[in-house]
Amino acid sequence: MPIFDTDILEKLGPGPLAKLSRGAELVMPRYDGYNLANISPTIAKWLGVNGLLPAQRLASEITDHFKDQYQNVVLILVDALGYKQLIKMMNEGNAPLWKDHLDEGKLFPLTSISPSTTASALTTIWTGSTPNYHGVIGYEMWYKQLSLIMNNITHNPITYAGDVGGLAKAGFEPTKFMTATQLGHRFAHSRVESHSFMPGNISNSGLSKMHLPGSTAHPYVAESDMLLNMRDLLNSASKRRRFVYAYWSDVDSLMHQYGTHDPRVTEQFRDFSNAFFRLFVDGLDASTRQNTLILLTADHGSLETPVNQTYNLNNHPELTDMLTMAPTCEGRLPFLYVKQGQIEAVKAYFDHAWPNQFDFLSRQEVLDMQLLGNCEDNPDLENRIGDLVAVPFDNTYLWWPKKANTMLGRHGGLHPDEMLTPLFAL
User: Fold this and answer.
1) Which residues of 354-367 are buried (b: 16+ CB within 10 A; e: fewer)?
2) What's the rounded Cα separation, in Å, for the pair 4 and 16?
3) Average of per-residue pLDDT across 75-98
4) Rg (Cα) of the chain, in Å, rounded?
5) d(Cα 45, Cα 41) in Å, to the nearest integer?
6) How many CB atoms lie within 10 A of CB 86?
């Protein structure tokens, strides 16, 4: 059974995080060839794209199992499908088709980026760079130029309920926000087609507009729509090589509402898998299939986090009084902006309220250990990190939005369930 995990998993440990009080329980991103950020640069090589992308390619320990080049590379990204979750589903009979295809496929464990969250991860995919380079670090992020905390998916100020794209009123232009070059532009210069299949309701979102210049967008209504259109695209004749990306979000949506391992999550993935193999993989012409590499991966994993109101900052006014503004990033990796002279008091409050459940990294420690990546730093990176980064252990988190705290599955942190992602190659 070609699961290439024994040697690789030994490399995916805490690294410099081991200095934290319980850092041995965490996973440090391995940006040097065993990370989500290394996938796009490797795809570029497989498609014969000229020039290097900012991030490194996958380690030779992985790429030695593949051909040098392909006519088509398909990347299926299943939001929140962690490596440990996929292994569990295969072992328990809930992902039988993937287990059956291990005889002809290959499965590798990788690490997600940090923060292990969708906006950061998808930007990593579409720029072939690490978060410290492209600068999209977290679900919510302090953006000094506009003097506000922005939602990196909806592109609105975090206090604007029900608003999408509201940052445009302040002069924000999604296509000009990043200095990183998008894959579509890089690939077009090498005469490689780039296609993106995304749900119709987000295909024209601000985040998508940031990612897709130079690519052809294919909005879809349902999985059958996505899979059959992908099949038809690849079966059609073309003199150019093709990169085809597909994003599927139902695992993430269900695990937030019901928890990581709820039957609704596993049943939905089973149904998707059945359609994926029947409509897409088995529907490719023999000649197309021979020259096509299909990859399944995820932006991050998911951690079971039962609702606990003690983590709601609305119940901790003494702590919020020591902060200059609400935290940013993610509940599983909060960035704290601390009033002058209050850093030790903030740490003491955490130790009293949640003993042995959080540890801390300073902004400089985050930069020095390259937690957010090993590419050149974004010029605004330091402003976006905060004075302290709270690192939670177990299934703890912080909650600060002014809405109900009901999420049962979370991500963003450094726990193995969040950090380990699959790379399944067919």
Assistant:
1) beebbbbbebeebb
2) 25
3) 97
4) 21
5) 7
6) 25
Which residues lie across from 420 on neighbouring strands?
111
Could you please state the CATH topology (level 3) that the domain comprising 309-410 is classified under: Gyrase A; domain 2 (3.30.1360)
Cis link prior to 115 (omega < 30° from 0)? Answer: yes
Tokens describing residue 316: 């901790």
CB of 194 closer than 8 Å to CB of 215: yes
d(CA 17, CA 210): 32
- Please state, in angstroms and rounded to a whole number, the distance separating the CA atoms of residues 402 and 400: 6
Helix (H) or strand (E) holding 191: none
* DSSP reduced 3-state for 160: coil
Q: Which residues on neighbouring strands pair with residue 244, listed in sequence order? A: 74, 195
| Tokens representing residue 310 in the block | 């003690």
DSSP state letter for 339: -
Q: Whole-angstrom Cα distance, residue 408 to residue 9?
A: 27
pLDDT single digits (tens) 197-212: 999 998 888 899 999 9
Q: What stretch of H or E contains 150? A: strand 148-151
d(CA 126, CA 129): 8
- For 44-111, give the DSSP string: HHHTT-SS--SSPPPPHHHHTTS-S--SEEEEEEETT--HHHHHHHHHTTSSHHHHHGGGTSEEEEEE
Domain ranges within the chain, ordered by starting residue = 6-304+417-425, 309-410
Residue type for position 279: L
Quote the CA–CA distance of 120 and 210 in Å, as a whole number.
12
Q: What is the mean pLDDT of residues 73-102?
A: 97
* Protein fold of 6-304+417-425: Alkaline Phosphatase, subunit A (3.40.720)
Which residue in the block uniquely carries the two structure tokens 């990612």? 211
Instruction: State pLDDT tens for residues 29-73.
Output: 999 999 999 999 999 999 999 999 999 999 999 999 999 999 999
Sign of the alpha-carbon torsion through 97, 101, 105, 109: positive
